[in-house]
Write a structure and sequence with these properties.
There is one protein chain. The chain is 49% helix and 14% strand. The chain has nine helices and seven strands; from the N terminus they run βαβαβαβαβααβαααβ. It has a seven-stranded parallel beta sheet, sandwiched between helices. The site of NADP nicotinamide-adenine-dinucleotide phosphate has 28 residues, from helix 1 and helix 7.
Length: 250
């Protein structure tokens, strides 16, 4: 996929799905703002592994709206402009209703801050920027949970991903005539740090609900993001694309 000349911000690119996406985009020739929260060394290692000085690692805790805006501005400072944003960073923190109300609520708020509020703010900033450039693309990494629902301990996660999906569709509907396209990718269980414990606990039962014989890996998701960023899928704007090894079809 030829992405030369494209400038792209990928959030949560220090590991997991975001790292695979950032690598794929850099391999295609894009200049990437590789965002990290706590894992600066891994973000910098990703740049080194891709042998590029054209891309940059930028840190921000997306729980903080000031840092979210700072990340957007620093991306523009580093890359000059943005053609696409991949809103991938996310957290999956269990908060059972048996917890005291205040800690349940704290976790709920933290999940919404990272998974929904930060992408919302970045979307607002991107729309303003893309309008000045006659367009751009937003790729939201959602989840199967938005459609299938989640387990009792993860109500906040499912709600955040439902919100993200609706956000993407609304952007696609509202700004398509200004050249702005928006897509949601909805993974199922994927081998990353976020899911490894659940995958280990659920074991064989997970494979029994999956059409394919293995669970998804980040490398199965990254090529689709490159394809979207290339512009070849523009007429599918507003769509949700499932990548869940056939574990949930709707
Ligand atoms: N893995 C799955 O089974 C699965 C399934 C469906 C959807 N997804 C979605 O896919 C996306 C990527 O997940 P993953 O599995 O690759 O997760 P992961 O391996 O845990 O990586 C999460 C990324 O998000 C960043 N991050 C976490 N908290 C942050 C914060 N407060 N501020 C800024 N960045 C923060 C992390 O940065 P640092 O490491 O630098 O702290 C890391 O780069 C998420 O949106 C997730 O919901 C995953």
């Amino acid at each position: 996929m030829d992405l030369k000349g494209m400038h792209i911000l990928v959030t949560g690119a220090s590991q997991g799905i975001g790292a695979a996406i950032a690598s794929q985009l850099m391999a295609g020739g894009a200049r990437v703002a590789v965002h990290y929260n706590s894992n600066r060394a891994r973000a910098e290692a990703l740049l080194a592994a891709n042998n590029t000085s054209a891309s940059v690692a930028l840190g921000a805790n997306l729980e903080d709206p000031g840092a979210v805006e700072g990340l957007f501005r620093q991306s523009l400072d580093a890359l000059g402009h943005l053609d696409a944003l991949v809103l991938n960073a996310g957290i999956f923190t269990p908060h059972p209703v048996s917890e005291p109300l205040d800690s349940w609520w704290r976790t709920w708020r933290q999940i919404q801050a990272v998974n929904l509020d930060a992408p919302g703010l970045l979307t607002r900033l991107a729309i303003e920027h893309f309008r000045q450039r006659a367009g751009g693309r937003l790729v939201y990494i959602g989840s199967r949970a938005a459609f299938r629902g989640e387990t009792a301990d993860n109500l906040g996660y499912a709600a955040s991903k439902g919100g993200l999906t609706s956000l993407a569709r609304s952007v696609a509907r509202s700004y398509g005539k200004e050249g702005i396209k928006a897509f949601t990718i909805a993974p199922g269980f994927t081998h990353t740090a976020m899911a490894e414990q659940a995958i280990a606990e659920m074991g064989q039962a997970l494979l029994e609900e999956t059409a394919l014989k293995e669970l998804t890996r980040p490398e199965h998701i990254a090529p689709l993001v490159a394809f979207i960023c290339s512009g070849q899928l523009d007429h599918a704007t507003g769509t949700v694309i499932d990548i869940n090894a056939g574990s949930y079809m709707h």
